[in-house]
Amino acid sequence: MLDIKTLTIKKAGEMMRKGELTSVELVSACLKNIKEKNKELNVFREVFNDALKQAETADQMMKEGKGTDLTGIPIAVKDNILITGKKVSSGSKMLEDYVATYDAFVIKKLKEAGAVLIGRTNMDEFAMGSSTENSAYGPTRNPLDPSRVPGGSSGGSAAAVASGMALGALGSDTGGSIRQPASFCGIVGMKPTYGAVSRSGLTSMSSSLDQIGPFAKDCDGAKIIFECISGKDEMDSTSFELPKEIKIKSSKDITLGVPRDFLKDGIDKEVVKNFKETLEKLKSKGYRVKEVSMPLLKYSLPVYYIIMPAEVSTNLSRLDGMRYGLRKEGESVFDTFKKSRSAGFGPETRRRIILGTYVLSHGYYDAYYNQAWRVRRAIGREYEDIFKDVDFVVTPTSPNTAFKFGDRKDPLQMYLSDIFTVSANLAGLPSITIPSGLSSSLLPFGIEFTGPLDSDISLFAIEKDLRDN
User: Fold this and answer.
1) Is 417 a catalytic residue?
2) Which end of the chain is more exposed for a tag (fewer CB within 10 A), N or C?
3) Known catalytic residue: 284?
């Protein structure tokens, strides 16, 4: 019997190429899981009614010898990535009925590879959140413990893979929104180098931070998706082609940097214990572990929560009930504008728009926004200096394991969930989270590796070493 929860992308591809499995069988098994579990977990906003037809086309590709590593593999897509003819609401009432008129670059690449797009997954509204509690369509639940959050904002995509509703998924990561939910759900999640994957067709939240990336059960699956969706796109001037020839170092040649001064306060004791144990495992594999000083990392979170809301305020200004989005008629143009945005945006989105508008306003622009950019560039230089001595920087992915619904009612407490992840986005660096064990409550831990620019492929090799332990 097919065990979807443990089946990996690589294994499924091998079985299909050998004729031991068809895409129709694989997709049918995922659809069965969705039917049984989605009502409780609220993972999918929509399951595409042409999924089995896509699977039949993929099986034909295989028969004709045109298959790729992703042909026939069911992939879930975060609800802020455009797919022609499909709704894309970004978890918001503002775009509830918006239908995409073109494919995102990553969707084009997946279609060309013969992947099966099985549905669109729930998310925090406009990707603003760390728990997927902020969706206008209700929270997604963690498949490992439905009383707990799956992380966010890509919680739906992470839960889809962890629950066997899909073999892989796409998410977007602005400050940790792939890595943190992957950690909470016990899977692999990767944020590429900024520009390695095109943002064309991604609903913008914070344009200088957003990055599309993969979820999978293991490093091989995440690498297969990443290699498919990466590349230069004429529609995205920030995109580029990664170097083709990357020399992967053996574990004995790799030095890991641990910023101990950044790992002192506010971290769950079990997370610290697991982190230390995981470092010992890596040492036993031949990795060198070195303590490094990165004093500017502590400013990552405040810098992020100045730059990100400012860009949110700008990007969402177009959703005003006039040009795009939900429209609520008022007595005047201003009244229509006010009613539409009040009805369309949820509390967290409104909070960030107001904060962003404030830091961009006259008299505060230099004091907050410009200063945040100065520190952002300094953080990037600090990483550059550190990478002269170490190959990767390693931290826990999150200061805690998956928390229960309602445990983070204070917004500032919720924002602290991103403390270890945001710096990679600020510096534009590739970063991956890898499962590293279970807590006493059987909740997964994650360990995060951040590498220099363009070192994306090397991150997958590290993950494999850790998994092989």
Assistant:
1) no
2) N
3) no
